[in-house]
From TrEMBL:
Places the protein is found: Cytoplasm
General function of this protein: S-adenosyl-L-methionine-dependent protein-lysine N-methyltransferase that methylates elongation factor 1-alpha.
PANTHER family per record: EEF1A LYSINE METHYLTRANSFERASE 2, PROTEIN-LYSINE N-METHYLTRANSFERASE METTL10
Organism taxonomic ancestry: Eukaryota, Metazoa, Ecdysozoa, Arthropoda, Hexapoda
Tagged with keyword Transport: no
Native organism: Phaedon cochleariae
Protein known as: Protein-lysine N-methyltransferase PHAECO_LOCUS3410
A GO biological process held by the record: methylation
Pfam families listed in its UniProt record: Methyltransf_31
Keyword line: Cytoplasm, Methyltransferase, S-adenosyl-L-methionine, Transferase
Similarity remark: Belongs to the class I-like SAM-binding methyltransferase superfamily. EFM4 family.
Enzyme Commission numbers on file: 2.1.1.-
Stored InterPro entries: Efm4/METTL10, Methyltranfer_dom, SAM-dependent_MTases_sf
GO cellular-component term (any): cytoplasm
C-alpha cells in the first residue's frame, strides 16, 4: 500500500503552535477552536454510541489526540461518566482542561503520546484524525504499525476502536487493521456526488479487538 507524503500536520511543533493560538482565542473570546471534520461527524459518532448495545454510560472511553476535547465535552453532556482525553500536545491538553472546567465537567485530561503507549486499559478508544496525522509523519508505515499495536494492547477484550479518517478509505483501513481488529460497523458520513458517482470525504469505522 502506498504511503502518504509527510506533512507538517504530522509534527508536534505544528500542533503546539496551533493550540497555543487557540488557547489565546479561548481566553480572549471564549472560542474553543475548530471541531475537526465538523460537528456533524461528532453528532453521528455520538448517535452511534448512544444506540450501541456494547457501550454504556459508565464505559471507560478514551479519546486519543483529543485536541480541544470537544467530543468528550459532548459525551459528558450526554451523560457519559468515565471519560479520558489524551494528546501529545501539552497546549491541546491545557486548552481542553480550560474548556471542560468552564462547563464544570469532570473529564480527565493528560499529555500522552500514543506511539509510546497508553496509560491504562479502555473499553472504547476514539480517534478522530490522530491516525491521519501519524500517517503524515516521517516513517509512516512504522508509526502506523506502532499505533495499531498500542491501541490493540490498550483495549479490553471485546473493546472497540472508533476511528474517523479523511486520508484512508474503509477498505484501506480494513486492510491496515486486519491483523489485530475486525470491522463491525461503519458510521455513515456525509456523501457527495460527482460525475454520477457517490463518494464520501470522510470514513468512520468501528473496529473490534480480535
Amino acid at each position: 500500500m502506498e504511503e502518504l507524503e509527510s506533512s507538517e500536520l504530522g509534527t508536534l511543533e505544528y500542533w503546539e503552535n496551533r493550540y497555543k493560538d487557540e488557547i489565546h482565542n479561548f481566553s480572549n473570546h471564549g472560542d474553543p477552536g475548530e471541531v475537526w471534520f465538523g460537528e456533524d461527524i461528532v453528532d453521528r459518532v455520538i448517535r452511534w454510541m448512544n444506540e450501541s448495545d456494547i457501550i454504556e454510560k459508565n464505559s471507560k472511553i478514551v479519546d486519543i489526540g483529543c485536541g480541544n476535547g470537544m467530543l468528550l465535552v459532548e459525551l459528558a453532556n450526554e451523560g457519559y461518566r468515565n471519560l479520558i482525553g489524551l494528546d501529545y500536545s501539552e497546549n491541546a491538553i491545557d486548552l481542553a482542561r480550560k474548556i471542560a472546567e468552564k462547563q464544570n465537567l469532570s473529564i480527565e485530561f493528560m499529555t500522552c503520546d500514543v506511539l509510546k503507549g497508553l496509560p491504562d486499559k479502555y473499553e472504547v478508544v476514539h480517534d478522530k484524525g490522530t491516525y491521519d496525522a501519524i500517517s503524515l509523519s516521517e516513517n509512516p508505515k512504522e508509526q502506523r504499525e506502532k499505533y495499531i499495536e498500542t491501541v490493540h494492547h490498550s483495549l479490553d477484550e471485546m473493546g472497540v476502536l472508533i476511528i474517523t479518517s479523511c486520508n484512508w478509505t474503509q477498505n484501506e483501513l480494513e486492510e491496515q487493521f486486519n491483523g489485530k481488529f475486525q470491522r463491525t460497523a461503519t458510521i455513515p458520513t456525509p456523501q457527495f456526488k460527482f460525475g454520477g458517482k457517490i463518494g464520501s470525504v470522510v470514513t468512520c469505522c468501528v473496529f473490534q479487538k480480535k
